[in-house]
Amino acid sequence: MENFTGEVMVGQRWLSDTQSELGLGIVTAIEGRCIRINYPATGETRLYALAEAPLTRVELAVGERVRDRAGQQLRVTGIRASGGLLIYDCETLDGSSCQLPEAELDDRLRLNRPRQRLLAGRVDADHWFICVITLGSRECAKPARRRWDCSALASR
Predict the structure, then answer these.
(1) FRET partner for 46 with CA separation of 20 to 30 A, picked from 56, 115, 130, 137?
(2) Distance between CA atoms of 147 and 122, rounded to whole angstroms?
């Protein structure tokens, strides 16, 4: 995934860097210097200024596992672009081949890519890090340890 490479097109899939709970968005309109994105997983629509949009283009890599809108699990074996949209060559669990247009990706797609999160400025609060350093990982993992217990350590 990369931030704004190439031209933005209707039908492309994007993730919000600041509101990941919206799920995977789909570009529905480009209006002047604005981009309208629908988030089918939540039924919400957002209008962003293209120059300042906190969005990341979804571009899967060969080998990644994904689901389509029907919930079928697939493994990406190849990627092609057609008219500014991506088409993924995939393999199903039973080994058969299929094509997956990016518009058919699961709307609830969650990607855990630490490097991309860091570069996009999406980082977690440091109170868990401080808790682990101060108390040790086992102590912080105990069910009785509450978030506010570790948060108090951040002020040290």
Answers:
(1) 115
(2) 20
